[in-house]
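re the bet — no i am not wrong, look at it urself. input seq straight from the record:
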Amino acid sequence: MKLTPVGVDIAKQVFQVHWVDPQTGEVVSREIRRATFLSHFANRAPCLIGMEACGGSQHWARHLEQMGHQVKLMPGQAVKAFVSGNKSDVADARAIWTAVQQSGVRSVTVKTESQQAVLALHRMRQQLIRFRTMQINGLRGLLTEYGEVMAVGRAALNRAMADVLARLEARLPTMLVDTLREQWQRLDVLDEQIARIERRLSDWMKEERARRQIADIPGVGLLTATAAVATMGDPKAFHSGREFAAWLGLVPRQTGTGGRIRLHGISKRGDVYLRTLLIHGARSVLARVKEPGPWIEQLGRRRPHNVVIVALANKMARTIWALLAHGRTYEKGYVSTRAA
């Protein structure tokens, strides 16, 4: 059965819906309030519903799929190419309706609430680390105004802070010294909050075999394993490990004309957070492993160090997809072969 395409531009309160009636050919563009959005689609035959992958789209996609509809979440950049005229809710819904019917537009996997919860923990941990870095830099900058210059880094701050505050007590008002001491002690609170989130991620990883088996890959630890499983969603949404690595932006960007193709730096598409974790994991493998393997050694003779790191991160991403898609465990030195 051919599903009727429907474009939905979601918002906080008023959603814009666009479709063409398959019986009469009438073009319908309608506003629907948030409270009646689900009831509108509950009374309709199964549709192919297109939405931009933005805030709240995963929530609505899960509810619509439970009603029997097929939902396709698309990146905003892909939908933008189909917007004609001035930007408005009506134009956006019409562009989404056009894009959902195109076979070449990449879709975003609809995630479960559990997977979204894990990604939320990662985002909050990342935010706390950012707060901690800001706090350290703020303290160093304030103390520089009083002639106390410290080396960069948390360890250097902890080593020097007690002596610095002791020297400043004789020169500065007590209210300032006490406030500086409180802000320094606040770093321990942030450390504990980050540690609690990491313990919760560790507990989540122990619940399922898929998360544990990719943690055996060199360079893949707790954060990378949990983020990869939650970000990927259904591994079957990707046709191959190459497609997953390209989706993360770990492949060269290409430009070409007249049949001549030029390769540049990595495209940096996809999830920035997961790509960063994979690259840092690859960097740690090259720094700590005594014998990285013949492939890495041969590549290191021909390419710069950073190129080798990204190539290893690309291989890690493809290995993660292969293990999750085929339900296998990691085997060092495993060589895949084509089926006869």
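see?? DSSP finds 13 helices and seven strands in the chain. told u. also The mean pLDDT is 90. so pay up
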